[in-house]
Amino acid sequence: MRIALAHGLHRRSAQSQNLSPHVHENNVRIWWTTYFIERSMELLLGRPPQIRDDDIDAEMPAEHDQFPSPEGLIAHAGLATIMGQIVSDVYRTRRRNKEDVDETLLSLNGWKATLPISLQMNYEEPLLVVPSRSILLLHLMYNQVCSSSWLC
Q1: CA 134 to CA 126: how far, in whole Å?
Q2: Domain locations along the chain
């Protein structure tokens, strides 16, 4: 995370300086992958965030013919943003507000409800086809967020 921040990958302006579209998209994807890993560790280990979401203006990954579809990474980034809310608003040491917890719960439910069909899993029916590893990981992280934060 510190290296990504030092290179300005969290800033839109730093990523677009005379870079080819391929290198630019690669940097965008490196940033959001790093962000997801860092937010996951903050949530699981109870660490404070290294960067506030207000200080991030990097664009989301885009379709690019040399990269896989960005849907999964965008979903992970959205979940990571909610992890940051949990660390900041639910786990904080100062007094929590019920409104902050409710807002985080709404964000988490909204995230799941707006997942693209290609990333959804039906928890009610038995699996007829085993989802891809990346979809399973996404839903495992969602359930980890739920159990870690007592929100679901």
Answers
A1: 19
A2: 2-149
Share of the chain above pLDDT 90, in %: 59
Q: How far is CA 139 from CA 22, 33, 83, 134, in A?
A: 29, 16, 14, 9
Residues in the chain: 152
Burial 65-102 (b: 16+ CB within 10 A, else e): eeeeebbbbbbbbbbbbbbbbbbbbbbeeeeeeeeebe
- pLDDT tens profile 75-103: 999 999 999 998 887 777 777 778 888 88
Whether this model's pTM surpasses 0.90? no
10 Å CB burial of residue 116 (0-12, 13-18, 19+) is exposed
